[in-house]
Predict the structure.
Amino acid sequence: MKLIIRHLKNLPGFAKEFLELQGRNRIFAFYGPMGAGKTTIIKAICQNLDASDAVSSPSFTLVNEYITKAGDPLYHIDFYRIINLSEVFDFGVEEYLSSGSYCFIEWPELVEEILPPETIRVKISVGKSEERIIEF
């Protein structure tokens, strides 16, 4: 499947459509170069899920937990700073991935071997100007 975000103002509509297409899927791995918009897109998706917290990059904390207005957790995980796989297990990534809650993962290339088979892989490509091509 391919969706195109032509402008930042289209992010809320994209987030809604993206989630409608996912059904019961809850684990998403976002692939794309630095500056492709992974965090921005995850932020729009979390806002569509009614995150009551401010969504930001977890680059320094590895995991940000947001709570929806209904009280459900959303996990935003960033593996950019991971040096080796043992670090991932040290902070208990298995608990997040098996929680049944939404998990949005940035830089999953570093932990590909431990992603569950049901993980939806989302590739972000940069088009013209603000355009982003999303394939999953």
Residues 26-123 form a domain with the Rossmann fold fold (CATH 3.40.50.300). The CA atoms of residues 14 and 74 lie 18 Å apart. The chain has a mean pLDDT of 93. The chain has one domain: 26-123.
